[in-house]
Task: structure prediction
Amino acid sequence: MIILNTSKLAEIFVLTDDFMQEFSPYFQQKLIGAKPWQGKMSKSEMMTIVIFFHLSGIRCFSWYYKHIVKGHLSSYFPDTYAYERFVAQMKHVQLELYAFLHYFCIGRPTEANYIDSKPLEVCHIKREKMHRVFLHIAQKGKTSKGFFYGLKLHLLCNQQGEILRIQVTSGNVADNNVKLLKSMLSGFKGNVYGDKGYISKLKKSLQAQGCKLITKIRKNMKKPLLTQKEQYYLKKRGLIETVFGQMVSQCQIEHSRHRSPINCMVNLWAGIIAYNFLDRLPRIADFDMKDLKEAKVVLLKD
Result:
């Protein structure tokens, strides 16, 4: 049984349509040679269809569009394209989805903020030399689970599971890459927690701008002096893994059947936007000194 929340569908459409009414005039002014959209479907309708797909729980977009959109949701979308035409037109909403992502989905820094990356495989590692869709875009990279061929999604989130900053690179870009860290944390203020992959020489320069990068350490490194609050939040670093887990399992941001790099980005942005429409986001509780003061301590004597 497939249960579709049409109230969520209406909510997405209202937000995207309101956004497009403001964004379209600005887009026409800034882009040289841009022509007004003359498609049978509005861009807000197309954005809504793609975003709602990532909330539907359906894995096959072709089946979703042919049977759900053109069938059960035909009263919501009376003037739909044929499936092949819709897929060809999806590339025209890539910029709008990216702008909507930054307009609607970006939260505010909290006491604890977490940074990590997620590999996005575009094909099996054994087929990397035959792959052509992402030629010169995807690269071979390595994670704790082994090698992969594809892209990397770099994410910064707060303790409430809200997205703060996001960037996509090729798979061979390291987490502590200097240019990447400067781009991700430029102008950012607050504590940022990461794993050992974010050990970097930029810690001092970041701290000068008000951003404290706190990471786990290697065995041959001296233990840094951390407050109880910082130790508490560092142990909760698994929050961002949960965020990635929900993006993959519930919002389907990753699959290896893309036939176009632009449509890949359309699905990626739509999946990340869909994550923000989930009923409940993962979060961690604030650090509270009362819990430490009221903790019962028992001394055992030999």
User: Anything to note?
Assistant: The two ends are 62 Å apart (CA to CA).
